[in-house]
């Protein structure tokens, strides 16, 4: 009956060709890179055999940039130029950053995303994160022996649009092709679920160094469906360190500590916290700059008591996420613990009590996110095998809306909507002859705009003049599979596409990114032209390969003329790719894209038709 | 047979156009379709295909969201039948229903003001039970009698009940924090 050979769109063009892809866990405290090797996800280690890279970047006066363990060592001697926990600053203004007073950095608050003054000039959190990504990318290429097709980078599920965009921009600066931004708890679920072939509803409790996420997932027949997510993008293990640090200051009657002492004691607090995972008490000994000595002992119970309010802060999102998922705690089949901070006994106890069951900890909570990201990267790069039929369906964590009269929020996309999602809203003019309109896009659940995150402001221009109330302006929100929003607007009665000028509230503009890219290229003495040409050639190769494969699989969907037109466009692009003009190659790619537009649509149709045909068969069997 | 982005959601999921749907079949069809059109299946392919995939996956998600829950499903059926169920046209509400509205509102308001979590939970359950009965009535009205004008009024009642349900949930949430 099947006359057409239906292609599986996800299959690789050449099954034997393995594309190099990695998953990156860009953490607040530590970062990791992992890949799938011989069907098994593994973390890639540095030359010294260490998988974890401390997320610390040091800028030297001579232009060198140091990342990781060696940078960490300089933390005490060169604090201003040694940036730790930069993830806390991504897509954030200065007023959003907690415990600013106990960081040694020279912040610049000029509105928008916070910037830091270093010996190498002013740096954005995006540039600093890019340095970490570059090191992990280089490690992966050295270890895998070739250039990377693409990467999956994990982000906290509760990251808003600005924080996600900042992460994607950092990858772009680092020269990495982002296949997908993946939510950390979802990544953990992949690593866990595929390992255990689980079915049912699972809760992922992810307490990292600086962020807290909670996701409820339903696993059935290979589909990982996120039902709801909640969390706190500014709560993590760092806050437990800080609480213990304050306790030390209080007990030892130190006030206020010098910045050197503060750093030393914060380190001691962290060490003590880690010791308390395995022992009932931990000593805290330090010599202050005044010569005074601190000699304290903290017990597990004392630590649990002083951090009770932090644990409580994770309980409210747990109740909310279950309500959003429409489930009770007893309906959760298993609870997976992710993130180093879940090693604290008081955290495990609280979670066990809430769900009435012991949480699952059989995968290393530090590595599970990177491993899941690697598994997803392998599939997205096109290395999917026939039996890899699993799929992730994730959600947007926070509602998206527009500001309306009186500073109120009008929700356009509700939280926990499955991605990708599009929603549109219509507006009208309120003055005769009005040709422009201003919009303010916000994210969050609160009613007042001032209590939500401001994402961007944009202006529509070129609305044809009409009487008040006659124009029908349709503003469309599209959120992609990375959870990133794009906005478009159109006046419906005239069909005029109004131009949209978006000014991100806490992000970098396209021009800023382009400037940084150019600067970076000049810095390493690279040739901008050669780089652009190489990029276009790689893209051309990729497009030709995919199109050729599509012709092999689904050529029957085309008549001879249509096929000839596509083949001509391929030949033309092949020719152009041997030249040295990147713009010409780009034009050739665009021409091939136009030539295959209809073909792609038909392939999609035939794939969908076969899905429906499959169902009909099932119905007959019933 | 042709499939396009404009076809109705029932056809998209291969289901009969009725209020009563086979939820298992709907979910199965949803997963099957997303398995074919989701952007994760196209991440390594040219932009043309990525764009198509996003459009389709968006459409499939919208369809599932619309058909999964009874109220949006009923609203969608009315839309397909060309009947407007918008609240702004609710001129034909019976006085009995208006009385009922006021009673629910007062009960919720009282429990909220008194901080009565238990009472709010009771109201939540009572309202849900009541809604179930109204949904049964709606099913008969649409699937058996095909009376969309009558269905529109029932949908308006259900929209109101859902609003009250949200108010109860918000009040419960406020009590917890």
Give a short summary of the structure.
Chain A is of the alpha+beta class.
Report the count of strand segments of chain A: 27
CATH class membership of the largest domain in chain B:
Mainly Alpha
Count the E strands of chain B.
0
CATH level-1 class of the largest domain in chain A: Alpha Beta
Give the helix tally of chain A.
Answer: 14
Q: Bin the helical content of chain B.
A: over 70%
The pair of chains with the biggest contact is: A-B, 57 and 41 residues
Estimate the mean pLDDT confidence of chain B.
87
Order of helices and strands of chain B: HHHHHHH
For the record, the CATH architecture of the largest domain in chain A stands as 2-Layer Sandwich
- Main sheet specs of chain A: 6 strands, mixed
Features:
heterodimer; A: 622 residues; alpha+beta; Nucleotidyltransferase, domain 5; Actin, Chain A, domain 4; Substrate Binding Domain Of DNAk, Chain A, domain 1; 4 domains; 6-stranded mixed β-sheet; 5-stranded mixed β-sheet; 14 helices; globular; B: 177 residues; mainly alpha; Helix Hairpins; Monooxygenase; 2 domains; 7 helices
Structure overview:
The complex is a heterodimer of chains A (622) and B (177). Chain A is an alpha+beta fold and 622 residues long. Chain A folds into 4 domains: 21-193 and 363-387, ATPase, nucleotide binding domain (Nucleotidyltransferase, domain 5), CATH 3.30.420.40; 237-308, ATPase, substrate binding domain, subdomain 4 (Actin, Chain A, domain 4); 400-512, Substrate Binding Domain Of DNAk, Chain A, domain 1; 529-621, Substrate Binding Domain Of Dnak, Chain:A, Domain 2. The longest helix of chain A has 40 residues, at 582-621. The two termini of chain A are 20 Å apart. Chain B is mostly helical. Chain B has 2 domains: 9-68, Helix Hairpins (Orthogonal Bundle), CATH 1.10.287; 87-176, HscB, C-terminal domain (Monooxygenase, Up-down Bundle), CATH 1.20.1280.20. In chain B, helix 5 (95-113) runs parallel beside helix 7 (148-176) and helix 6 (117-144) packs antiparallel against helix 7. The longest helix of chain B is centred in the C-terminal third of the chain and has 29 residues, at 148-176. Chain B starts with 8 loop residues before the first helix and ends with a helix. At the A-B interface, helix 8, helix 10, strand 19, helix 12 and helix 14 of A face helix 2, helix 3 and helix 7 of B. Chain B: This is Co-chaperone protein HscB homolog. Chain B: Residues 8-80 form the J domain. Chain B: Keywords: Chaperone.
């Amino acid at each position: 009956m099947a006359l057409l050979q239906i292609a599986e769109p996800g299959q690789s063009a050449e099954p034997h060709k393995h594309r190099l892809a990695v998953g990156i866990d860009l953490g607040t405290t530590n970062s990791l890179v992992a890949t799938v090797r011989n069907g098994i996800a593994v973390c890639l280690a540095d030359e010294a055999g260490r998988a974890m890279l401390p997320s610390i970047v040091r800028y030297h006066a001579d232009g060198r940039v140091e990342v990781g363990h060696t940078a960490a060592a300089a933390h005490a001697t060169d604090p201003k130029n040694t940036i730790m926990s930069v993830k806390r600053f991504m897509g954030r203004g200065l007023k959003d950053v907690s415990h600013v007073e106990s960081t040694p950095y020279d912040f610049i608050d000029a509105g928008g995303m916070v910037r830091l003054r270093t010996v190498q000039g002013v740096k954005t959190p995006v540039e600093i994160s890019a340095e970490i990504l570059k090191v992990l990318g280089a490690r992966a290429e050295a270890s895998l022996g070739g250039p990377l097709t693409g990467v999956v980078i994990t982000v906290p599920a509760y990251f808003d649009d600005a924080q996600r965009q900042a992460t994607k921009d950092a990858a772009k600066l680092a020269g990495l092709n982002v296949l997908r931004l993946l939510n950390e708890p979802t990544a953990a679920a992949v690593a866990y679920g595929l390992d255990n072939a689980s079915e049912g509803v699972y809760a992922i409790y992810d307490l990292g160094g600086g962020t807290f996420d909670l996701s409820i997932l339903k696993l059935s027949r290979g589909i990982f469906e996120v039902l709801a997510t909640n969390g706190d993008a500014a709560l993590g293990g760092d806050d437990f360190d800080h609480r213990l640090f304050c306790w030390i200051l209080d007990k030892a009657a130190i006030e206020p500590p010098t910045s050197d002492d503060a750093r030393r004691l914060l380190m001691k607090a962290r060490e003590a916290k880690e010791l308390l995972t395995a022992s009932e008490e931990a000593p805290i000994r330090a010599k202050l700059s005044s010569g005074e000595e601190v000699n304290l002992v903290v017990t597990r119970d004392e630590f649990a008591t002083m951090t009770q309010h932090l644990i409580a802060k994770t309980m409210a999102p747990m109740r909310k996420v279950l309500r959003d998922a429409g489930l009770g705690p007893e309906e959760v089949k298993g609870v997976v613990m992710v993130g180093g901070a879940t090693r604290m006994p008081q955290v495990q106890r609280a979670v066990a009590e809430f769900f009435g069951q012991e949480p699952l900890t059989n995968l290393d909570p530090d590595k599970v996110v990177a491993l899941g990201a690697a598994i997803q990267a392998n599939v997205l790069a096109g290395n999917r095998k026939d039996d890899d039929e699993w799929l992730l369906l994730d959600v947007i964590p926070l509602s998206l809306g527009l500001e309306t009269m009186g500073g109120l929020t009008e929700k356009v996309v509700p939280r926990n909507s499955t991605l990708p999602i599009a929603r549109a809203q219509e507006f009208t003019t309120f003055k005769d002859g009005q040709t422009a309109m201003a919009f303010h896009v916000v994210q969050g659940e609160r009613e007042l705009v001032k209590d939500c995150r401001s994402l961007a402001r944009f202006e529509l221009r070129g609305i044809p003049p009409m009487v008040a109330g006659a124009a029908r302006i349709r503003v469309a929100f599209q959120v992609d599979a990375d959870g990133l929003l794009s906005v478009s607007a159109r006046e419906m009665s005239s069909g005029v596409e109004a131009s949209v000028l978006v000014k991100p509230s806490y992000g970098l503009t396209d021009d800023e990114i382009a400037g940084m890219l150019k600067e970076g290229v000049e810095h390493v003495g690279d040739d901008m032209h050669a780089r652009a040409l190489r990029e276009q050639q790689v893209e051309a190769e990729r497009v030709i390969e995919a199109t050729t494969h599509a012709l092999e699989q689904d050529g029957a969907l085309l008549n001879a003329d249509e096929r000839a037109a596509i083949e001509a466009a391929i030949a033309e692009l092949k020719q152009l790719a041997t030249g040295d003009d990147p713009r010409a190659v780009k034009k050739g790619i665009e021409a091939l894209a136009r030539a295959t537009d209809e073909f792609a649509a038909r392939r999609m149709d035939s794939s969908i038709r076969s899905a429906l045909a499959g169902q009909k068969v099932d119905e007959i069997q019933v | 047979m042709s499939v396009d982005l404009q076809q109705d959601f029932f056809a998209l999921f291969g289901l009969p156009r009725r209020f009563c749907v086979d939820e298992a079949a709907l979910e199965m069809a949803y997963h099957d379709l997303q398995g074919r059109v989701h952007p994760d299946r196209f991440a390594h392919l040219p932009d043309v295909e990525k764009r198509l995939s996003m459009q389709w996956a968006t459409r499939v998600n919208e369809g599932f969201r619309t058909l999964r829950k009874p109220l949006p499903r009923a609203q969608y059926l009315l839309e397909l039948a060309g009947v407007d169920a918008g609240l702004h046209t609710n001129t034909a509400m019976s006085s009995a229903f208006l009385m009922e509205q006021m009673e629910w509102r007062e009960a919720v308001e009282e429990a909220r003001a008194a901080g009565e979590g238990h009472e709010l939970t009771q109201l939540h359950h009572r309202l849900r039970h009541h809604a179930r009965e109204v949904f049964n009535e709606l099913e008969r009205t649409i699937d058996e009698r095909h009376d969309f004008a009558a269905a529109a009024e029932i949908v308006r009642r259900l929209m109101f009940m859902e609003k009250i349900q949200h108010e109860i949930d918000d009040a419960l949430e406020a009590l917890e924090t």
